[in-house]
Amino acid sequence: MIKGCQKEMIVMQTQDSTLFESAYFILRRQKLPPSKPDMVAEANRIIGGVGQLAAKKRRGHRLWLFALGFLCGAALAAFFILLYS
């Protein structure tokens, strides 16, 4: 949600991406606005970091689900072994 009546924003258009058409960045209020090359460099840094962060989150999520399934299977096997012994 955008609060306030006036915000500065950068719109980055891309033609080489199959997923995204454009990206919108809303600038924080500062006394001195950053230069255009600095803003573009920071936007590119953020865009590049998002893919890496998403991959790390997915990998950790898969490991957690594997460990949970393994523990449930081990508990079920132990239950049947104790039940029939």
Polypeptide structure, described:
The structure is a single chain. This protein has 85 residues and is mainly α. It has one domain (9-26, 37-84). The chain contains 1 helix and 2 strands, in the order ββα. The chain has one helix at residues 36-84; strands at residues 9-13, 22-26. It has a two-stranded antiparallel sheet. The radius of gyration is 24 Å and the shape is elongated. The chain starts with 8 loop residues before the first strand and ends with a helix. The model has no long low-confidence stretch (mean pLDDT 77).
Query: What percentage of amino acids are in beta strands?
Result: 5-15%
Percent helix range: 55-70%
Domain unit count = 1
Average pLDDT reading = 77
Oligomer: single chain
Which structural class do the helices and strands define? mainly alpha
Rg over CA atoms, rounded to whole Å, is 24 Å
Number of helices: 1
Listing every helix as H and every strand as E from the N terminus to the C terminus, the arrangement reads: EEH
Largest sheet: spatial strand order:
1-2
Shape: elongated
Number of strands: 2
Largest sheet: 2 strands, antiparallel
Q: N- to C-terminal separation?
A: 61 Å
Please mark out the parts with pLDDT under 50 across 5 or more consecutive residues, or reply none. none
